Q: What sequence folds into this?
């Protein structure tokens, strides 16, 4: 009786309650998991102890996850965790580990909508992911342009059925649905990228779809080995060295604080951006020296140049 709360390593109603909290949302951060676990433990406790969210450690969470994972693995489900690419927040997600996890979208979306999602992923991981520039994101305008299905489709990829175009309205609704369902995240600069949960869930599919012997389009961080869609890359375009911003310190510490590429050992000072910043950099470098004269022809860079003529009046 006394050891009742020690039964955390046997799957029981408390783990079921924990699993429910994953089913009701796409992901949980450690900070979100703490009050949930505290409430579950309090409901279970028979000695009137009051467990506070602050009492819950990462170890408590991982104990619950290990037991839950053992119970759900026959259903091809697994709770995985990763660090946010923006900061070091730990994120837990219930992931479908079956081989073609993208098919789970089929439970809530039509085949034409899923074809559009795949066109968006092609744009992220092929069109906007070149040797020179790894943007790995799409702008909303681009996502809406992809509403139109291509005329001659790869029959194998569409499983025999030609995908039909979405209307603008449908594409707009799908873009929002992908955010609401936890697949896409939307940046302030209007770029859509895959969420940490989507990267965990689609990892196998992405590697299978976009990597081949000649080209590894899906890259991993040289420090944490997770997929990388935002961060930095080695200045040598042929080098596979990639680091998340928050993994840099760990990587450099491991090589005696030498701020060098973990792969080729070149200076990391001139590292290039991975993610939406690579799109900005790309535009700058293609405009080159002509940008000063051609600002009138451009719509997006026009506002910062206008001050030049009006600023000094002598
Ligand atoms: Zn990393
Ligand atoms: Zn390198």
A:
């Amino acid at each position: 009786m006394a050891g009742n709360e020690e039964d955390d390593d046997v799957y029981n109603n408390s783990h079921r309650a924990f699993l429910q909290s994953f089913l009701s949302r796409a992901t949980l951060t450690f900070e979100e998991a703490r009050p949930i676990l505290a409430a579950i433990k309090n409901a279970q406790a028979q000695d009137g102890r009051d467990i506070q969210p602050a009492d819950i450690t990462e170890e408590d969470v991982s104990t619950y996850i290990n037991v839950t994972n053992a119970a759900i693995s026959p259903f091809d489900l697994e709770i995985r965790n990763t660090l946010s690419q923006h900061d070091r927040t730990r994120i837990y997600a219930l992931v479908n580990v079956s081989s073609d996890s993208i098919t789970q979208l089929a439970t809530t979306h039509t085949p034409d909508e899923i074809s559009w999602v795949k066109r968006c992923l092609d744009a992220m991981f092929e069109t906007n992911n070149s040797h020179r520039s790894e943007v790995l994101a799409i702008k909303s305008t681009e996502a809406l342009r992809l509403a139109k299905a291509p005329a001659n489709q790869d029959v194998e990829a569409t499983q025999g059925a030609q995908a039909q175009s979405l209307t603008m309205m449908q594409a707009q609704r799908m873009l929002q649905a992908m955010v609401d369902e936890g697949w896409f995240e939307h940046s302030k600069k209007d770029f859509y990228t895959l969420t940490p949960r989507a990267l965990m869930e689609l990892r196998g599919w992405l590697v299978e779809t976009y990597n081949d012997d000649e080209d590894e389009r899906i890259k991993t961080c040289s420090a944490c080995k997770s997929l990388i869609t935002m961060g930095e890359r080695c200045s040598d375009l042929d080098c596979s060295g990639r680091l998340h911003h928050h993994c840099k310190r760990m990587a450099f510490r491991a090589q005696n604080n030498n701020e060098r590429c973990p792969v080729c050992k070149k200076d990391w000072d001139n590292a290039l951006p991975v993610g939406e910043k690579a799109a900005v950099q790309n535009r700058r470098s293609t405009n080159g020296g002509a940008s000063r004269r051609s600002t009138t022809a451009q719509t997006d860079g026009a506002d910062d140049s206008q001050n030049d003529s009006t600023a000094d009046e002598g």
